[in-house]
Amino acid sequence: MLTNGPPSGPRKALVLLTAACLTTISSASLADDPYPAQNGGFDMSVKDGAVHAPRADAHAPIGVMADHRHRQGELMLSYRYMGMWMEGNLIGDNNVSPDKIATTVPNRFFGAPGQPPTLRVVPTEMNTDMHMFGGMYGVADRVTLMAMLPYITKDMHHVTYQGGMGTTRLGTFETKTDGIGDASLSALIGLFDGKTAQGTQHLNLILGMSAPTGSIDEEGRILTPMGLQPTVRLPYAMQLGSGTWDLLPGVVYMARSGNFSYGGQYRGWIRLEDENDEGYSLGDLHQGTVWAQYEWAPWISNSIRVAARTQDSIHGIDLNISGPVQTANPDFYGGERVDLLFGVNLVAQRGIICGQRLAAEVGVPVYQDLNGPQLKSDWTFMLGWQKTLGDC
Ligand SMILES: [Cu+2]
To answer: For residues 362-373, b (16+ Cβ closer than 10 Å) or e, as one string?
Structure first.
């Protein structure tokens, strides 16, 4: 299912860029700060003139972005791999079979030349791979900037039913897209940093913008109910960006008491334009999450997390996207979903790899209510690497 071809142009360029940053940017200097902005990965205490290694639980589970700040002058580089697998369809929270979709769900394009009354092409499965390259930089103790650039690969499998009615299957086909997604720049602004006998707590405001750098005019070859194989503009779900400038507001709280830590975050994706160049805007997305972590030893912590999201359907329509398939209908987007996630954070404590972080998180949906028919989430996986330069 996974498409693991050799790195193509843009991905290779990003890898080179990251490597260049690593080699050219010198380590940030570490001052002895009695009021650390936040552990951008480590306990700021400086004892015996030595900087102590980071704590595993100083970062939230890897699926939570924009969780922590860095001190002034600190630079952190990160890479995350995210895999999302979808299989089967839901209308609301009810499973619906391809046969039922193909015989009962109205085609909104019916009436146009060659358009059947019901949907005749049904997505059965979708795989999304995202490679997220990120950087964080402390412009001041209270303000950290975070830049993110994703490289996305998508593929969707479909079954095509023959003609305008019935349940005879004509065949299956797969569409694929890949390229960079929407780049974003956010500021994390410290609202409150507290220190207790047992630990610390931090409250940060998140204010970001997402630029429409991802393509929204990707094309692919499909199989129609009449047996034709034209190349067409692919549906919204297969496009790589939103096409609009988006506001990314949020707030995040993290607290630690001894070896136990917990936190919560809200983030939003608010479309700042009614329409992108193709005449639509994706629905606003709101996401809330809470987590708890236990640190067994400074180098390892485990986490449990709940993430909930709600998204509107698509507003407007791209006139180049049509066909007897659910993904061509802007109404069949958005919905609600709750995931349960389990994670591990690792951070090397000494030697040449001191301060290198490796973390993973696996998620399964526990509730989905979709504006369907729509493909449902099956499971998600994330693997991430992070390093704050000069932290050991
Ligand atoms: Cu960071």
So the answer is: bbebeebebbbb
